[in-house]
Amino acid sequence: MKLWAKHTGFTIVELLIVIVVIAILAAITIVAYSGLQQRTRDNIRKSDLTSIAKALKLYSVDNGPMWIGVGCGSNGNGSGWFNYNYSPSGMNKCLKTAGVIDKDIVDPSGSINCSIGSLDCHAYMKYTCSQGGTATTYVYANLETLVHTTSDTDGTCAVNLDTDYGMNYFVKITD
Q1: What tens digit of pLDDT does each residue of 94-126 get?
Q2: Is 31 in a helix, a strand, or coil?
Q3: Residues of 36-69 as b/e, b for ≥16 C-beta within 10 angstroms?
Q4: Which one of 12, 14, 22, 51 has the lowest number of neighbouring Cβ atoms within 10 Å?
């Protein structure tokens, strides 16, 4: 007869090592997943701005330039937030009525407008201005993975969009 039985199993030290390794792997996965989501949303934003540019070009072929008294945009001047709900003549509504888009183009965050001082604004905006005697149009977005500076929108119509709304990416729409 044996006085003691041989026990098999893991020691507490072995279990703690396994738990620590699993925790480290989980932390790495969470960080990588978060960055992946931001990059994915930014890619959607870039694609949306390209779609907006194409839609605006189609609109101008059928209806003339958006900035000439067509009643689109926040003030009817063809500039403003690119959404349906912000104003009765939002850019989405204008383009849908003209038949150049089928559904609203909205930032992947779901945000449709922002207030001044909201540097994490995630909504699309369009501005048309006169530069060198020619009307120039830009559409703006705020990319999460691009570092913000105070000169992100310099040289465009709305130089204060970087400091007022955090816009740091734009597409120039050419004729």
Answers
A1: 888 888 888 888 889 877 667 777 777 788 888
A2: helix
A3: eeeeebbeebeebbeebbebbeebbeebeebbee
A4: 12
Angle 12-63/91-98 helices, nearest 10 degrees? Answer: 60
What one-letter code names the amino acid at 162? D
Residues 6+ apart with CB under 8 A from 119: 148, 163, 165, 166
One-letter amino acid at 146 equals L
Residue 18: alpha-carbon gap to chain centroid: 40
C-alpha angle with apex 84: 99 to 52, nearest 5 degrees? Answer: 55
Q: Measured between alpha carbons, how far is residue 147 from residues 46, 93, 152, 166, 167 in Å?
A: 16, 32, 9, 10, 10
Q: CA quadruple 130, 136, 139, 143: dihedral positive or negative?
A: negative
> Helix, strand, coil % (nearest 5) of the chain?
35, 15, 50
Question: What is the value of pTM for the model shown?
Answer: 0.75
Over residues 22-53, the pLDDT tens digits come to 999 999 988 878 788 889 999 999 999 999 98
- Burial code (b: 16+ CB inside 10 Å, e: under 16) for 78-105 equals bbbbbbbebbebbbbbbbbebebbeebb
